[in-house]
Amino acid sequence: QVQLVESGGGLVQAGGSLRLSCAASGRTFSSYGMGWFRQAPGKEREFVAAISWSGGKTYYEDSVKGRFTISRDNYKNTVYLQMNSLKPEETAVYYCAATTVAAGTRWVGNYDYWGQGTQVTVSS
């Protein structure tokens, strides 16, 4: 079992930055691949970024490549999402998730544990 708690969301102007954090409970955190997803009102949950258990592999949705960075600290049981040059259309609830696919995956159906989400609002 893994419990996930996101933080770091908020209101930011277009072009600004935010850093999301996801704190995980459980001694086996380092064995899980981790991902970030987002869901805007009326839309399906979509993949943003994922990272392997070791942090050696990362995956990004095409529109965030070069602006977002996913990282993890297995000593702190925490995964991060640094978001730069934010756009208004990226306003959404951002979710952290854990998967037993240790290499990481972009497929939402492969994730077993989810946080409660943190709201990110980007104003124009």
What can you see in these coordinates?
This protein is mainly β and 124 residues long. Helix content is 0%, strand content 49%. It contains no helices and eleven strands. Strands 2, 4, 5, 6, 9, 10 and 11 form a seven-stranded mixed beta sheet that branches. The protein has a four-stranded antiparallel beta sheet with strand order 1-3-8-7, with no helix packed on it. The protein is globular and about 40 Å long. The N and C termini lie far apart (40 Å). The model has no long low-confidence stretch (mean pLDDT 96).
Topology diagram in text:
Layout: E1 4-7, E2 10-13, E3 18-24, E4 33-39, E5 46-51, E6 58-60, E7 68-73, E8 78-83, E9 92-99, E10 111-114, E11 118-123
Parallel strand pairs: 2-11
Antiparallel strand pairs: 1-3, 3-8, 4-5, 4-9, 5-6, 7-8, 9-10, 9-11
In terms of per-residue confidence, which ranges show pLDDT below 50 for 5 or more consecutive residues?
none
Report how far the terminal alpha carbons are from each other. 40 Å
Number of beta-strand segments: 11
Tell me the major beta sheet. Answer: 7 strands, mixed
List the secondary-structure elements in sequence, H or E. EEEEEEEEEEE
The global form is globular
Summed up, the helix count is 0
Beta content comes to over 45%
Report helical residue fraction.
under 10%
Label the structural class: mainly beta
Rg calc: 13 Å
Mean pLDDT over the residues:
96
